[in-house]
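Pinned message: reference record for Septum formation-related domain-containing protein
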Amino acid sequence: MGSRGSTMRTRLVMAGAFIGALAVLSGSMLFSWPVSVEGKADTVAQEAAEAFDSPSGACLDWPHDKPQNMRRVSCEKPHTFEVTSNVEIGGEYGPNSKPPAETDWQQIVTERCTAEATKYLGGTLDPFGKYTAGALKPNSEQWGNGDRRLRCGIQRVTPSGERLLPTTGAAAEQDQSNVHEPGTCFALVEGQVGDPVACENAHAYEVVGVVDLSTTFDPKAFPSEAAQREKLVDLCPPVANKYTGNANLQANKLSLYSDTLKKESWLAGSHLVNCKVGAREKDGQLRPVRGSVQAAPLPSSPAPSQSAPPSSPGR
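Predicted structure (tokens):
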């Protein structure tokens, strides 16, 4: 496969590796906890255990730093993971087998859960879109008790592959375009784009708007990336001007640029792209930017005074 296929595979493997590590941490903490002195299961642990074994269509959430607090939430609320299916891996992993090595888990997740995610989304999974396939896997204790299920699901992974971003709404009802809310800034780490950070911190770029290319191009016919770039020269400035209050970006040595879409993304129905502001050195290297380019909100006008109407002159 070419570089495009390698990129797709790398993203999926990174996602599988991360969620696999998270599952080991979550599982060992969740299912090894003893019951309380009164004999009642800890409420948080019980809630997490029930969430871990959720059916297809369930949405799960957990704090990044406390995965043991996993819980089931409405998909209309921000969530970290959406279950697509529960898959028995079977095959060589019989009753007395050892659990797969970490690299084997990654391969199993990529092979089994990607197909499940594609089916769950109605037959199309944008390989460069915001969703990737992942899984919650049994921990060593569950494995020893005969659990051979992958809890396959859909998630959104940060550029580093080390965190998951919350999403809102059922995945099958969402546009899969890999876009972000205006005002999202991404870290600059050793010359590469990192994870979202507060805009006052050093960052690579700030998203200033999102545009829909399907309003310009035929949704059924992929426009070349060169054609996209040519049109985005016209589409991005208006949204950037609205966001920045018509700020002079060049005076601050900043540039407005945009993402483009691959053919696979376009044919999967992804038509939205980010317009963003960043800075590059003459050699093309990204230069760190600090502070948001968003225009300060205009001060609200004071309410008119409610003075009494003048009295009529006496007669």
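Pinned by admin. Summary line: Helices lie at 3-30, 43-52, 102-120, 140-144, 225-244, 263-267.
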